[in-house]
Amino acid sequence: MRIVTLEEHIMMKTVLITGANKGIGFETARQLAQLNHFVYLGSRDKEHGLEAIQKLNDLGITNVETIIIDVADINSVRQARQELEAKISSLDILINNAGIPGDQPQDFSTGGLENLRKIFDTNFFGAIQTTQEFLPLLRKSAQPSIINVSSEVGSISMRTEAGRNTNRDKYNAYGSSKTALNAFTVMLANELSDAGFSVNSVTPGYTATDLNQFQGAKTVEQGAMPIVKLATQSHPDTTAKFFKDGGEVPW
Ligand SMILES: NC(=O)c1ccc[n+]([C@@H]2O[C@H](COP(=O)([O-])OP(=O)(O)OC[C@H]3O[C@@H](n4cnc5c(N)ncnc54)[C@H](OP(=O)(O)O)[C@@H]3O)[C@@H](O)[C@H]2O)c1
Q1: Positions marked active-site
Q2: Residue 70 Cα, ligand 1 centroid: separation in angstroms?
């Protein structure tokens, strides 16, 4: 086992990632833990969380623990918060990563309100209620950061640009949940600007995961990269921005 230096220990941050039992969330957990941060790996299913921890342990990563959290269920979020409060005195980074694509079709002209509500329950309200519950712990961090995992399909600018990709219409309900999530990012960032918070959106880009039946062009290693970069950014005062790999995304 490698001995952690005092300097590394001081740099080490405490991170909670929701929906981290697989996909981009899991890979983000792996990369951040390998950078010596302590990661609470959120999973709504206990067994899946433990399996994910076992996979990381098999890679020699031990600075991780799973925590059961279903972001769409306020009781589960409260329980997770109580569990974490008993273990840590502050939380440095909350990554609201849990997300669902919803069912198809999702065009607004033909209905699908139940589908829309279900998507928003996880992708929008889930992120908000998780953030609200963990804010007291985040406020105790010297450099608190909230990272909302969003998507280009939620960018109104990209949706309205000339020659837009109409294939994006396939993700109208999902995309609008990410547009709403982006609004949450900006408004929360403004609310918390005097409290030293960094609140940003980030997109992994089209990444091969269960979410898109592994059709995405990027690997999870690539998809997690902009999230990890934001979590470990050298300008912690950056706030109210929407990032992608290699730059910013227009709102
Ligand atoms: N893949 C892409 O191309 C892409 C592009 C842009 C943005 N994103 C975003 O990236 C994030 C991660 O997606 P992914 O591609 O890694 O998808 P994924 O492999 O399907 O992983 C989604 C994760 O979210 C969890 N989850 C779903 N509903 C939840 C809930 N109510 N409470 C807690 N956890 C919940 C899932 O848990 P279970 O295993 O229990 O279902 C899973 O761990 C999402 O926010 C997604 O919108 C993905």
Answers
A1: 174, 178
A2: 12
pTM of the predicted model over 0.85: yes
Give the CA distances from residue 117 to residues 106, 174, 177, in Å, rounded to whole numbers and listed in that order.
Answer: 12, 10, 9
What atom of ligand 1 comes closest to residue 220's alpha carbon?
16
Residue closest by Cα to atom 1 of ligand 1: 207
pLDDT digits (tens, 9 = 90+) for 76-92: 999 999 999 999 999 99
Ligand 1: distance of its center to the CA of 122 in Å?
10
How far, in Å, CA of 54 to CA of 48, rounded?
10
Q: Name residues contacting ligand 1 (CB within 6 A).
A: 18-19, 21-25, 44-45, 48, 69-72, 97-100, 122, 126, 149, 151, 203-204, 206-207, 209-212, 216
Superfamily of domain 6-248: NAD(P)-binding Rossmann-like Domain (3.40.50.720)
Parse the chain into domains and list their residue ranges.
6-248
What pLDDT is stored for residue 11 in this prediction? 63
DSSP string, 124-154: IIIHHHHHHHHHHHHHTSSS-EEEEE--GGG
How far is ligand 1, taken at its centre, from the CA of residue 202, in Å? 14
Name residues whose C-beta falls within 8 Å of residue 171's C-beta, 6 or more positions apart in sequence: 101, 106, 151, 153
Mind listing the pLDDT tens digit for each residue in 151-194? 999 999 998 886 666 666 689 999 999 999 999 999 999 999 99
The residue assigned the tokens 């290693």 is 221
